[in-house]
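Re: your question from the hallway

Yes, I did run it. Sequences:
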Amino acid sequence: QVHLQESGPGLVKPSETLSLTCTVSGGSISTDNWSWIRQPPGKGLEWIGYLYYGGSPNYNPSLKSRVTISLDTSKKQFLLRLSSVTAADTAVYYCARGRANYVQYFMDVWGKGTTVTVSS
Amino acid sequence: DIQMTQSPSSLSASVGDRVTITCRASQPISSYLNWYQQKPGKAPNLLIYAASSLQSGVPSRFSGSGSGTDFTLTISSLQPEDFATYYCQQSYNTWTFGQGTKVEIK
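Structure:
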């Protein structure tokens, strides 16, 4: 069974770059797609972006200029970088696996989430 | 971007009630619609994918319907463990979530 685990700094300073890692265990990272989602305190879910192995990433247009998602297949990890952060980027960050039902994708495995606070 | 609008934003219901949550897309998305349940402090959990397919392990009291722009999540008989927040999510284009519907105890 696939498990996902987010890791990274819990505190990031304004204007710096947030970097998180999601480690995949129990399955291959070379199939499916891999997403990042976030949830500000007390608010709803916001999809950040996804990446397919061997494919181009797809990002939320509202974050596109600041986001990079990449895969490290040797470590079975996928990575999130979000630059020029502000307090508005404070959130719980989740990683998730996207699976396809023919061409329709859904996120069926999620990490437990990691809290990132942007503050000086 | 495709906007997803859920209604209601919150509802109060009793154990045993039939509950219906709707989700409307700002443009047609065929059946590229998923539903998730989230409990406080936990990650979301997939309930329904492709508008009406029940995810493995999810109780059969949950069902989904709809196509195009209008979708529905129904809980046929609300159980104590169903009090949570529910989100729809479209995967037709750049993915987006609805704002959520909180189901509370009446």
